[in-house]
Amino acid sequence: MNLAFCRTVQQQKKGCCKLLTLNKYSVQQWLKSFDAIIYDADGVLWRTDKELEGASATFNALRAMGKRAYICTNNSTKSHLGICKKAQDMGILIEEHEVLTSAQALARFLAEKKFKKKVYIMGEEGIGAELRAVGIEHLPIGKEVMFGPDMYEYAKAMPLDKDVGAIAVGEDRDFSVPKLTKVACYLTDPSVMFLATNRDIAFPVAKGRYVPGAGVLVATVKAITKRAPMTCGKPNPYMCNQLLREGNIKPERTLMVGDTVYTDIQFGYNCGFQTLLVGSGVSTLDDVKKLQSSKQPRAYQQVPDLYVPKLSDLLKFLPSRNG
User: Which GO terms describe its molecular function (predicted)?
Assistant: First the structure.
């Protein structure tokens, strides 16, 4: 890697190096410093169901350079197969085994524990699909309908399945007080595991518009039960430990591209990856500046190595363009 570029990054690291301020030669030298790229999805490649401008072309051009590519998302509403299809429909060159989701990580965690009981899901079908794929039974997913005159009577009379051994919490558009009440009651038993897909607070759906993420629900359950969950998704390195174990990636030669400092960039730091923040999602340069001035001892771990406003800003530096 170019020594001048290394020094530039080192000098600007506390201030986060803005990649577009570097000359073309320096950026091309940087491109030689990694062999694999792990991309977040929402806020990096797409927003809800719409591709972010130039994202697929950039993704595919980097693949054409020989970079291994993976999508690693905390979104647990779809299975990894569903995320793969969504990406492919946008023209992104990706295969099923190159997609990692927090729901998939949660299911793998239970499978590795040789879990034999049932799971109650405060979440959506993505979690259920991944659990079924590894042979783990779960209770029906959906709305909890309150019965009785009020919540007090409901809480006293609601049935609890004695075979439930784990609670899985993710994004849940059917979230309700009756469901929260049932989850809290299950977790009064210390032998019932409390698992979270992720702790993302919100997902961007349009400029200045967000929807609550799993982190809001996880925090609510934690506040009621006074129990901390095992978080299976980013920033937990467990999310990609299979890639590391199988030798598919080397930390020192891997780039993490994300839009959220407290999950994606922290994940990159935890795994020993280079990190690139894109400004097309949750976190902004102002958030980075706040981290730089923070007195929290570990705030620096969420400061990215590099920043670009959007992924497609890299396209002009790439020798090969597909799509």
Answer: metal ion binding; phosphatase activity
Give exposure, 113-128, as e/b (b: 16+ Cβ within 10 Å): eebebbbbbbbbbbbb
**188 pLDDT more than 60:** yes
- Spatial separation of the C-alpha atoms in residues 175 and 208, rounded to whole Å: 23
Residue 220 and residue 115 in one domain? yes
User: What is the Cα–Cα distance from 16 to 170, expressed in whole angstroms?
Assistant: 31
- Predicted structure pTM score: 0.91
Q: What is the mean pLDDT of residues 251-256?
A: 98
H or E element: which one contains 121? strand 118-122
CA trace torsion 84, 85, 91, 92 (10° rounding)? 0
If phi > 0 it is left, if psi is from -120 to 50 it is alpha, else beta; for residue 211 that is beta
**pLDDT at residue 132 is higher than 80:** yes
Beta-ladder partners of 256: 38, 275
Does 40 show up as a binding residue in the annotation? yes
State phi, psi for 279 to the nearest 5 degrees: -90, 20
50 is in an annotated binding site: no
pLDDT above 70: residue 322: no
β-partners of residue 258 are 277
pLDDT for 290 equals 95
168 in Cβ contact with 120 (< 8 Å): yes
Provide the residue range defining the domain that includes 153: 104-231
Domain count, the chain: 2
* Residue 42 labeled ligand binder: yes
CATH of the domain at 159: 3.40.50.1000
Tokens of 294: 């923070």
Q: Is residue 9 part of a domain?
A: yes
List, by residue number, the catalytic residues.
40, 42
